[in-house]
Amino acid sequence: MTALATDWNEYLVVFREDAHQLLAWSYADTRLRLTEAKDEYEITGLLADGMDARINSPLTPERFTFYAIHNEKPTSPAGQLGKGRLKLDIQIELCGARPKSYFTFEAKRLRDDSSSSVSDTMRHYLGDEGILRFVRGYYAPDSLEAVMLGCIQAHDAEFWFTQVSNAFDSDEANEEPLFALIERLRRINVISDFPDERVSVHARVSGVEIRIFHLYIDCRV
Fold it and tell me: What is the pTM of this model?
């Protein structure tokens, strides 16, 4: 069992790093266009297309050909049909093995403007359309890790990390915490391109833990 656990952990680390690397490459390639994107759909569409382009580049290491990129992929955690299905913003699929493995990015614009205040932004990031979808098992129910991708359009990364940390602290004081926090927000460095990342660990409704990375990219003009 120890050897199996070690092998699985090493596999997960590689998948995590490759998913981050694809995002880093795409962000570098699409950075200027991201500032012009009008909503999350345009942002994730640009990033997903950028990932695909990198996979198809002859300059990209061969192992990345085993990955497929899905944008706005429908999912039916409660048997939803048709347009009622939820949609995953960006999902990286590792092909060539069964059962298939996935790494999911849920993107949220980090805003502070007349249409979305800081409190509005955090409600979307933390609530039923954000982190709670992972905690409740609606998104990535079979994955041990996922990413909340913050697209900064106001303030800076440290400001938003503080907002998330404060929200977690407040929630832990509740009789029945929504976020089922196991490990508090802490700094992590998965790849050098993203030196300022955070991670938290949560207990899902199923009882299985999920590690959520909080990765923020600058989309300001």
Answer: 0.92
